[in-house]
Amino acid sequence: MSGPLTGAIRVPGDKSISHRSLMLGALAVGETRVTGLLEGEDVLATAAAMRAMGANIVREDSGTWSIHGVGVGSLLQPEAALEMGNSGTSTRLLMGVVASHAISAVFTGDASLSKRPMGRVIEPLSQMGAQFEASPGGTLPLRLQGACPAVPIEYRLPVASAQVKSAVLLAGLNTAGITRVIEPVMTRDHSERMLRGFGAELSVEEVDGERVIEIHGEATLKPQTIEVPGDPSSAAFFVVAALLTEGSDLIIENVGLNPTRAALLGVLREMGGSVEELNRRDVGGEPVADLRVRHSALTGIKVDPAVAPSMIDEFPVLFVAAALAKGTTRTSGLDELRVKESDRLSTMATALTLAGAQVEEAEDGLTIHGTGGDPLPGTEEGAQVTTHLDHRIAMSMAVAGLASRNGVMLDDTSPIATSFPTFMALLEEAAA
Ligand SMILES: O=C(O)C1=C[C@@H](OP(=O)(O)O)[C@@H](O)[C@H](O)C1
Ligand SMILES: C=C(OP(=O)(O)O)C(=O)O
């Protein structure tokens, strides 16, 4: 087991908000200024794409990002393929942006992204008039010819996905009339908050238990000054690491706690975890707090599938917490985890089993019988884990390594740089 995690740390800016800051800044007329932007590879892919379509985006020496936008409807034809790397958010949201502009774009990605389903955005964007030539199974690489004018649609989301919702809303920005998205299950609402913040006419109504979001097209966006809060999905690794490591008492400052993102904390508290929210405040229209996390004995629970969308990226590290809890943790309703950077149910089941945990994999979730706080036994030379180009697997299994007798060996730590380039350094700092 590792030494305790103590002191105060800050995790980098929120990935979802960072992507949207660049996209909306590039679609506004004038200068948007962003502090706390996540400088991970995924967000940098979005920045490069917006530059390729005409925005002027500069990182100043102070760390502030300055974006001079071109205005909704005025994106330029990119000269080369838009290289999306590992980033599903960049790809799906930008497909929405391009879909209602009079330009075409080729989207390419790495081996992981090239396996992920794009049909979920191709479908509604085709209804709006965009045309696609995709690789077999509706995957990258694909070519998108935008429609201008595009046709406003009403679209009920068949999967709980903030990326699909956002793609349609972003396409609606340059579409005359009202584009309506119906969300049976609420997902992260950063797009709604930020589109409003940039001056788009957007309404949200609750009708018969569903969220109905309307955006008025041919919008003019006004540039903004944005302070990006710390990413709760990045903080999650430190929350779990501190809960599992004896003697830990760690402060994680400035963590975004939008209710559509924060369900992990409730689940960990229900398991017996000591996670306090200090100094609750508002940063850039998002609730934020400092978290104080103390080592705690955890008990397994049955996780309500209804919370899944509000912690969708946190399941890999929750599975690590479950592997060290007393008793059994059951999860279900997690089919979406199979189409992330890797199949996160099977990748985590394999990785945790190698580390010595007792895991049963079902179609839509994992059941994990925890050690009751004893270190994971693993193998003498350390469990050899394959991360499948998935940053969240790499970081989750690094946390599992802290709580294991012989450590964990990751085949590839490079994917961590997609969302959390300072993860290893911060872990060393907190454990020093
Ligand atoms: O909209 C976003 O910024 C995101 C939405 C989620 O994806 P889905 O919409 O595919 O669930 C999440 O997994 C991803 O990390 C970021
Ligand atoms: C699923 C994720 O990201 P994306 O879909 O943007 O690749 C993630 O960060 O866990």
From TrEMBL:
CDD domains: EPSP_synthase. It holds the Pfam family EPSP_synthase. InterPro entries: Enolpyruvate_Tfrase_dom (IPR001986), Enolpyruvate_Tfrase_sf (IPR036968), EPSP_synthase (IPR006264), EPSP_synthase_CS (IPR023193), RNA3'P_cycl/enolpyr_Trfase_a/b (IPR013792). Its main location: cytoplasm. Its EC number is 2.5.1.19. SUPFAM superfamilies: EPT/RTPC-like. It comes from the Bacteria. It catalyses: 3-phosphoshikimate + phosphoenolpyruvate = 5-O-(1-carboxyvinyl)-3-phosphoshikimate + phosphate. Residues 3-425 form the Enolpyruvate transferase domain. Keywords: Amino-acid biosynthesis, Aromatic amino acid biosynthesis, Cytoplasm, Transferase. It is an enzyme of class 2 (transferase). Phosphoenolpyruvate binds at K15, G88, R116, Q163, R344, R392. Pathway: Metabolic intermediate biosynthesis; chorismate biosynthesis; chorismate from D-erythrose 4-phosphate and phosphoenolpyruvate: step 6/7. The active site is at D313. GO terms for molecular function: 3-phosphoshikimate 1-carboxyvinyltransferase activity. It is found in: Cytoplasm. Monomer. Catalyzes the transfer of the enolpyruvyl moiety of phosphoenolpyruvate (PEP) to the 5-hydroxyl of shikimate-3-phosphate (S3P) to produce enolpyruvyl shikimate-3-phosphate and inorganic phosphate. This is 3-phosphoshikimate 1-carboxyvinyltransferase. It comes from Aurantiacibacter flavus. The gene is aroA.
